Amino acid sequence: MNTAFHFDTLVWDWPIAVYLLLIGISSGMVIIAVLLKRYILVVNAADDGVIKATTIIAPLTVILGLVILIFHLARSWTFWYLMVFYNPHSIMSLGVMLFQIYMAVLILWIIAIYQAKISDIINLAWVSRLVRLIAKGERGLDIIMIFLAVLLGVYTGFLLLALKSYPLLNNPVLPLLFLASGLTSAVAMAILCGLMFYKQSVHSPSLAFIHKLELPLIIMEFGLLAVFFIGLIFGGGQKEVAATTALRGFWGAVFWLGVMGLGILLPIALKLLCSERTKFNKAYLVTMSAIGLCSVFILRMFILYAGQMVMA
After folding, report:
1. Taking the model in full, what pTM does it have?
2. Which residue in 80, 219, 228, 281 has the most C-beta neighbors within 10 A?
3. 3-state SS of 26-69?
4. Is 285:202 a contact under the CB 8 Å cutoff?
5. In angstroms, rounded to a whole number, what is the distance separating the alpha carbons of residues 162 and 166?
């Protein structure tokens, strides 16, 4: 029997949505952290709560995401093959290559951030020389890291885009939509971690900067969603069928209430109606961040499930 979570054309289910969410958080947090390092904090970035959170969450979410993906494969034990033998014609293989490069540069980038602390903790001459050598390339690592983070952010969209038999997923707007929603989830995660785990002031330079990004990102996400569906509807044929099917029934309700209501209209309304004092209240920021994370996960679930309901 077909239900909203089980139907004949379904190939990828909810663990893939979790994987897409985790990769988006990692990508978005690195992009934000690099911007903070280069333009807001400039010095002593290693002492900032958002930077500290990024150096833990960015690698951890990628590792968790890959573990979920590996155990979700039909033949999990063959994943090592993808990590050794690359196929330039496979989006999955190109993704594995990207993950490996991203993680390697991410480790170097983290070492550069904590260069002084590492040298203090590990009192070995060769370690200090190696850390200094890596730290000399910190500016270059920032540039490479932000480039790789953007690639990772759009990659999850390209991964679904490659499913050509599903008109809703085979949409060129999807990589940009996932990049924007990944940044939204990263903003939410950065604020949550900064406030909850590192006791950062809501008026600190890093949180004040991130707070300013919320509204532009929500508006960008709304614009990309509009382009996403307008393109499908004017595309006609099965594209139009896929769009109208997605916007009705169970997944239609999920989209209108969870994505549009919770993720876009509610934050915009609160931004317009609440006073500046309320907007910088800790409870308000934590609540809005939790809502932001939920709405991004709902968007991933909607795209994944609604996207597989209609085939070309």
Report:
1. 0.93
2. 228
3. HHHHHHHHHHHHHHHHCCCHHHCHHHHHHHHHHHHHHHHHHHHH
4. yes
5. 9
